[in-house]
Structure formats: C-alpha cells, structure tokens
Design goal:
Number of strands: 5
Strand order of the largest sheet: 3-2-1-4-5
CATH superfamily: Ribonuclease H-like superfamily/Ribonuclease H
Radius of gyration: 17 Å
Helix content: 25-40%
Order of helices and strands: EEEHEHHEH
Number of helices: 4
Number of domains: 1
CATH class: Alpha Beta
Length: 175
C-alpha cells in the first residue's frame, strides 16, 4: 500500500451577514472583464453612515478581472475623507486574501510569491495599501457574488456593483 500523503487545505471562507459598525462607511466593490484579459470595468458603491450613497465606476480597454477588483476598492477608498472607518465588501477571495493574509509575506520576500514569482498587480496592491493607511480603520468583508433573488436582497449593493462594472466593461469595449 503506498504511503498516505496528506494535503493541507485551507478552510473555506464562510459568508456572514454584513454588519456595519457605528460611524462606519461600507464600500461595496466589484470588477468585471469581457475576456481575461480584455475590456474591463470596476464599480464601487460607497454607503456612508449618514449621507447619500455614491456610485463610482470606470473601465479599461485591455485589463484583467483582478485588476478591476483592486481598482474598485482603491477608487472607493479614494472617495472618502482621511481618517474614515471603512468596511470593504468584496466577492473576490483573491483580493480579500491578498490584503488580509498574503501581503505581509509578499513584502518580506521582496514582492515575490511563495513560489518565488513576482506578485501580480503589485502596483495596485501597493496603491491600495497606501490608501488604507490614510484611513482610521479598514476591515474586509466577503460576500458570495452574483446571486440574485429575494433570499439575497440584503446584497442588493453587490448586485448593483456588478451591474455597474459590467456596464463599464461594455463601455470600455466600445472605445
């Protein structure tokens, strides 16, 4: 009988309902790409605790979905004044892990991955890290993306961010 080889598996990310804290702004983000790479779009819906929502979106003619995900969070944070308390809501596990688990190791290794390769989208990760430093407190929250229906009505902002990002990608494709 061959020896058993165990495989390390990371625990799955579990979705929990978003609970904003007093005085905290929520930024719902999404990125989209038609082809990968291809024309892409990003969207951020900024939901302040005591003011009107702000929708921001944009696109690029030749990009990747991951670049658009990072750009959505970056542009959402840029819409806020210094010292804000923020929760960034994303359906991108890659962005969530990048900013909460992997970034410290990448910096220690000179922006190399565990496999020794250069970190992809390093420019955006560094810009996002600098933007986060401008704020009092930034935390991350993951939601399962692209679900609709009454059971997911609490994630209407996620659906709206997806719509805006897809529209921005379509606009980028027309340029």
């Amino acid at each position: 009988m061959p020896p058993y080889k165990s495989r390390r598996r990371s625990a799955p990310i579990v979705e929990t309902p978003l609970e904003t804290r007093p005085g905290e702004t929520a930024i719902w983000t999404d990125g989209a790409c038609s082809g990968n790479p291809g024309p892409g779009g990003w969207a951020a819906i900024v939901v302040p605790p005591d003011g009107p929502e702000i929708e921001r979106s944009g696109g690029a003619p030749d990009t990747t979905n991951n670049r658009m995900e990072y750009t959505a969070a970056l542009e959402g944070l840029r819409a806020l004044p210094d010292g804000s308390d923020v929760v960034i809501v994303t359906d991108s596990q890659l962005m969530l892990n990048s900013m909460t688990k992997w970034i410290d190791g990448w910096k220690r290794k000179g922006w190399k991955t565990a496999g020794g390769q250069p970190v992809k989208n390093q420019d955006l990760v560094q810009a996002l890290e600098a933007e986060i430093a401008r704020h009092a407190n930034v935390r991350w929250h993951w939601v399962r993306g692209h679900e609709t229906g009454a059971a997911h009505a609490h994630k209407a902002h996620n659906d709206r961010a997806d719509q805006l990002a897809v529209a921005a990608a379509a606009e980028a494709a027309r340029r």
